[in-house]
Amino acid sequence: MRNDNKKTVLVGVFVLIGIIILVAGIMTLGGQQKKFVKSISLKAVFDDVAGLQTGNNVWFSGVKIGTVKKIHFYGDSQVEIEMNVESKSKDYIRKDSKATISSDGLIGNKIIVIYGGTSQAPVVENGDRLVSEMPLDTDKMMETLQENNNNLVSITNDLKVLTGKIAEGEGIIGAVLTDSTLAMNFRNMMVSLEKTAVKSNQMANDLAKLSANLNQEGNLVHDLLTDKEIYGNLQKSIVDLQSTADNAKEMTSNLNAVTNKLNSTDNAVGTLLNDAEFNNTLKSTMVNIDSSTMNLNRGLEALEYTWPFRRGFKRMNRANN
Amino acid sequence: MSEQSEKNKPVLTKKLDKFLTGLANAFRFVKRFFQEVWLPPYEFKEILRQCYEIGYRSLPLISLTGFIVGIVFTNQSRPSLTEFGATSWLPALISIAIIRAMGPLVTALIAAGKVGSSIGAEIGSMKVTEQIDAMEVSAINPFKYLVVSRTIATTLMIPILVLYTDFVALIGSFINVNQNELVSLSSFFVQVFEAISFLDVFSSLIKSLVFGFTIGIVGCYKGYNSSNGTEGVGKAANASVVMSMFLIFIEELLALQIVNAIRYA
Known about the structure:
By secondary structure, chain A is α/β, with parallel strands linked by helices. Chain A contains nine helices and seven strands, in the order αβββββββαααααααα. Chain A has a seven-stranded mixed beta barrel. Chain A: The chain crosses the membrane at residues 9-30.
């Protein structure tokens, strides 16, 4: 009897654990597939759902928020998707959000992706229809890829022709690559360039040294750049120089006025310099003076031999000798 | 004499007649089960004892098998997924394989071997030693006591054993995945449940019920209809295993068609 009870208990435990495994599995499954959460229904209409199936996931910002509930035809040939989205996510989905069909991984299941939406728009409500955006069509992608392939083929053909010409020594690059003289010149040029670079480097070093020396205290340039007293004196000198320049300017203008006056005939010097009539008069005056002076000299010489001046002149000659 | 030979003359061919007679007997046997199962007296004590024998006593063997299946299947699937750089899909792949097919199938096959043969041999030996006749004389309904109780026990216990197998196989798979891909337990089980649906779980359970019923009813039928002494007992045990396994595979195929029809409806 006791043995029977033991068996009964063991069977009970066995069944209980089995049921616990089942319930835990169902709860986990339901939790993951949002079967037991409060949800709202959203809709979207697509031209092509690309193999989407009921039960496929709905993602928002990379988070699974629901599943596809129904798929049915709509209008002429469009397809309406009805999705169950958990209520706690609806506060983040706006009425102007868009829905598109994507893929869970490269070869994974199809999913609905809700994205976008502005904070100005109100949050979605049960039964709202989201704006749908058609996913990237693989066929169109392949068409573009084919076009790219064709372009690539033509590019490689061009490249083939180009490299052929280069190999045959045509054009500048071909000549550079095939002509030994050019190559030698190029090599010499490179050597010169290298030397130049070395010298430039050396010059840069010298410049660095020079600037270091200039930066040393006591150096004129350094003092000029750093000593505030010198700067003050320099500023003062510049002010003085400015005043001297002003004076010179004034003097120049005065000189200019004087020159102008000298050029005119309304003054004595100007008349002397510019008036031809006056000059002639002056010249004749001077001639007259000269002849008068000669006559005077002659008179004076005659006077030297005349009495009473004769004795005085003799005395003066003796004193001079 | 001529009447006798007329009576023994086959309707179609001897083999075909035997096969069709067997089929009709099996149908009658199943029909009788469904008639008797609702009628009192209900042999709860015997059902419980059979549940203990079939369910609890099979648990270590089923668990070990499930664990090994989990590890081996994971290991064998890895190279193929590695070629695509998709080893992260291992939990999903294992989950689908174990929950949808491997769990119920492995459990049912192991149970067919262990329980089916035991039922066939037990009832067969009771039949050849005329214990069943003795029970009838003792006013005990042998069909109810032996067949109904055992069939109910297998029908109830196989689904529970399948749950254990699924769980243990997933744990085995997790250990392997964890060692090789360093996937955490929570991440593993998130991916496991991500890949399956309620349809998978319930179809697996319903399939297990059918497998359990098949194992029980086939074992009982073969045992109940055994003859030719101890040789017949061996044949009954052997036939119950072979027939159970064969029917399990047929049922698996049918279940797959039905579930896919529902899934893609």
